[in-house]
TrEMBL record:
Keywords: Membrane, Transmembrane, Transmembrane helix. This is HXXEE domain-containing protein. The keyword Transmembrane helix applies. The chain crosses the membrane at residues 47-68, 103-125. It comes from the Bacteria. It comes from Boudabousia liubingyangii.
Length: 132
């Protein structure tokens, strides 16, 4: 991701030109997400882990859409791991025993909200830490 940002900075939309994600910040965000997922898996009922997996699949679908949009705009973002992982995650979700749970839809919507809020907070925190 970082090399792509460096090579394509001039092609990015005006809104994204101020994005300066450094390797340490990128790693920090990834570790925080792994920690959050581990807490969900260890301390919440299994339906929440299934919901988190569904939220992750939603996240991958967003990256697939990003690939299409950036291709159309002439600055292709090659996030090949997303279309490769998406069918695997779909199979994992299908194989989870909680996919018929009545609370799964609610839990999935909550986890997607948590994912979006976490992304916003981590990027805001990263920008603040990089400005110091």
């Amino acid at each position: 991701m970082l090399p792509w940002l460096h090579r394509n900075r001039e092609h990015l939309l005006a809104l994204m030109k101020n994005l300066r994600l450094q390797p340490v910040a990128f790693t920090r965000i990834a570790l925080e997400e792994l920690t959050l997922l581990s807490v969900i898996a260890l301390f919440l009922p299994p339906v929440w882990f299934t919901a988190a997996t569904i939220a992750y699949g939603f996240h991958l679908a967003v990256h697939c859409v990003q690939m299409l949009v950036t291709y159309q705009r002439g600055c292709f973002l090659p996030q090949w791991s997303a279309p490769i992982q998406l069918p695997i995650v779909a199979l994992l979700i299908w194989g989870m025993s909680h996919h018929h749970s009545s609370g799964l839809l609610t839990a999935s919507l909550i986890m997607i909200g948590v994912m979006v809020l976490n992304l916003v907070l981590m990027h805001a925190l990263t920008v603040r830490l990089q400005q110091q």
